[in-house]
Structures are given as C-alpha cells and as structure tokens.
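BUG: 3D viewer hangs when loading the predicted structure for this chain

Environment: internal workstation, default settings.
Expected: structure renders.
Actual: progress bar stalls at 90%.

Input used:
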Amino acid sequence: MEGGIAIRNILKIFPLHIRNELQAAFEALQGIEEIRVRVCQPIILLSDEGEYFFSMKPGHLTKDTKDAYQVTSHDISDMIVFISRYSLFAFEEEVRNGFITIEGGHRVGLSGQAVFHEGWMQTIRNISYLNIRVSHEKKECARRLIPYLYREPSQKQSGIYNTLLVSPPGRGKTTLLRDLIRLLSDGSREHTGLKVSIVDERSEIAGCYRGIPQNDVGMRTDVLDGCPKSSGMMLLIRTMSPQVVAVDELGSKEDVQAVAYAIHSGCSILGSVHASGLDEVRRKPVLREFLEQEYFERYLVIGQKENRERRYLLYNARQELVC
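Structure tokens produced before the viewer hung:
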C-alpha cells in the first residue's frame, strides 16, 4: 500500500490485537483498493494483485480460507468505536447515509440492520459488515489530458469545455477526475488557475475529514461535502461564483436539471457517469438527455487495454472522435 501515513490511518480503525500483523500484510500487497470486513468471515483484501485473505500466520496473506483470520463480533464492535472516535451518535447522519470518511480520505461503508420510520431509513443498527475503500492520489495522471479540455483562444468563451468522463467502475475515474480538478485549480504557465467548486456527495473526490480535504484538489477549489449533487451545484453557483463545477457520478433527473442550470449560469461542468461508453449512455433514459441536449462539449471515455493500461477516447458534442 502506498505511503506509511495511509497505512497508519487505516490501521487505527482495526482491533489492537491484529494491528501489527495487518501492517505486515498491507506492506506486502501493492495497490490495495478495498478491505472487506464481515462478521464470522475472513478479512478480504482486494488489490492490483488480486484477492487475498488476511492470516495471523507468518506471511499474513493467504489464498486458503482455512488459514484466514475469522472476524468476530467483538472485532466489529471495536472497529465501530475507533471509526466513530468513541461516539457513533456524533456520526448519526453519516451512518444514515451508509458510510463514514476517516482521516486520510478513506471511506468506510456500513451495512447491518436498517431501521425505518414512516418510510425513511433512520439509522443502521447491529453493524456487521464494513467496506474500507482506500483513497488513492495519483498526481499528474491527468496531465496529458488537460490541454484537450481548454477552449481555443479564438473562441469567445474562455475556460474549459463542459466535459463528461465516461467509465465503468474500477477504471480510476474518480482518481482522474480529482487530478483534473487539481490541475485546473492550480493552473500552469499556459493557463491561469480556475475557481473550481466540488459537490462531493459521497466524500470520494476531496475526501474531507472534519471539513478538511485529505486529497489535494488545488488552491482555488471549494468543497461542499456530503450534499446531494443537484442541490449542491445550485448552492455553490449562488454562493462561491465558480468558473468550474465538478461532480462525480451524475445519474438522476435532478442532476440533469442542475447541469443545465449551471451551464446557463455561465459555469463549466466537469462531471462523470458510470457507463462502458457512449452507446450505454445513449441507452439510459436519464443520461441520454446529456447527448440529446448537447450539454457536454467533450466526452472522455476511459477504456482499458489487454495489459490493463488505460485508454482514453475523446469525443465532441456531436459524438465525433476528436482523438
């Protein structure tokens, strides 16, 4: 796993009696993306190298469930205490949303017994399942793409094209979006930095912890954390006068309306959707409106070659291949 600080931040939420062994497992495995913790089941580490189980035996990683450490209900209880810093009640709203962001920007998904009142979920009790999504920063990964986002100097409107990232899960879409935001915000010798506002509904882009971004999103960036995208976009446009509004995983009818509002307000949009390509976007009733109304002027489709290297295809508003 990249970085000693990242390891320490994640280790702090695990029970004391397995921390040293877990540290050895983390250090032995590259590119950990998720850590799954389920009561009465083994701890599963998902990484670039595949799926491994955590073991208390020498080596600490195994493919055999017989050698894997079995999580107890006490382990889960201890983790909930550490994740919530001894006060789960203080994180009532986060629990209702199904996740808590910890120091370092790592997000812990929660599942257990849902409690409803008058049709609305109030909280999750008897939490027995945790999904730790490891936050990765890969600075400069978007550097070669940035020039294609800026408008030509001859155009009346300055700034960047309204751009939509299109990618299936697991292709590094959010990581790429985060670095695009940072580069646009900081600027360069060729381009003045832009005021960027992020609506970070699930705390995945900036990874705010106690209101402070744990990821570098640039010096001219403002973050609205934990707010629904549609209402958040409208709020930031009114209050922070952004030149660029950035959002992850657009998908609802309200999101489409908010995108239209932002564009008509003179802001550029930098967003993303889950889809394998423009054909899938076209098949989804809500997302299809983006194409039909030509809200976006650039579509960046993220693919993957056989060697797992990323492949980028850039299309214009008419869905013609640019490069």
